[in-house]
Amino acid sequence: MLMKAIELLKNDDLVGMPTETVYGIAGSIYSEVALKKIFKIKERPFFDPLIIHVSNIEEAKILVKHWPKSADVLTDKFWPGPLTLVLEKSNLVNDLITSGLSTVAIRMPNHPIALNLIKNFGSPLAAPSANKFKKTSPTTYQHVKDEFLDDVYVLDGGSCIVGLESTILYLNENENFLEVEVLRKGFIKYSEIEKILIENGFKLKSAKLENSINVPGNMKNHYMPKKPFVILTDGKGLEELKINFSTYVEMILSHSPDIAARQLYSHLRISSQGKEDIIIFKKMSWHTGELWEAILDRLLKAASEIC
Ligand code: AMP
Ligand code: MG
């Protein structure tokens, strides 16, 4: 199966790749044909940049202009894992990957199949989530098959253990301080990132990027399920809804945010499959803390109405 996947990648084709966050749709970063296929099959606009997946640090270092000390500290602690670093790109990185930005997003996934695939293919893979643009992310082999039918060869790596996209962190290090900015919340908490950087003597400063780097995590209507999805906040009831419906299904997530993150996209999909008109999620007062913030970030963007 690995051999077939590698053969496809060598022929400028795409492969469905399991990672610990969500399934990706992967193509060679050195094949413009493959990169274009990623955008086409996802119906993704070219202004939405891709994350590059590496299997070792050396692969990452040649993709950036300068690999800062803070990147060593963070990758020592969090790679392989759900942390994506955004750094100034080198000339090796195709503009299609970065949507013309001067920065590139890189991570090392913590999944044996993804690491093996990249290692044996011999160079990094660009891999956005394996779903159509703006739709719910896939966390199982079957989700990817449902999305792309037989158009894509998918490696089965079971259910994603994290279930939520990576934390994306912009870094800009100079002699005096380190500018950091979380571009997308994820499983790796900013408090953990901050702690390790401060312990290593970095003076942190918030980056506050101009022209807001394009982070679709920040677009409305991302992660959308197939049915209208409504979030009720602050104990509000169904009677507050101004839409017409006669039946609904309530999506219930675990009290544990780690488990809730893993369940999130599967539950959104399953909730769409019934005959009910709409899906409801009740936001509770105890949905607090950094991981719940990351989960709620996805839920709020998936919602068609919040009341
Ligand atoms: P996904 O398509 O779910 O894998 O998410 C990839 C996301 O990574 C993009 O949509 C952006 O939000 C983010 N990203 C990729 N490259 C960059 C970059 N150079 N600067 C900022 N964010 C980036
Ligand atoms: Mg995505």
Quick summary:
The protein has 307 residues and is α/β, with parallel strands linked by helices.
Explain what the structure shows.
- The strands form two sheets. A ten-stranded mixed sheet has the order 7-1-2-6-3-5-4-8-9-10, with helices on both faces. Strands 12-13-11-14 form a four-stranded parallel sheet, covered by helices on one side.
- By secondary structure, the protein is an alpha/beta fold.
- It has helices at residues 2-10, 32-42, 57-61, 69-78, 95-98, 112-121, 141-148, 190-199, 257-273, 290-302, and strands at residues 15-17, 24-28, 51-53, 83-88, 103-107, 125-126, 153-154, 167-173, 178-184, 204-206, 229-232, 248-250, 278-282, 305-306.
- A hairpin with a 6-residue loop joins β1 and β2 (24-28).
- The protein has two domains: 2-206, DHBP synthase, CATH 3.90.870.10; 229-306, no CATH class.
- The model has no long low-confidence stretch (mean pLDDT 94).
- The chain is globular and about 55 Å long.
- The protein binds adenosine monophosphate and magnesium ion (MG).
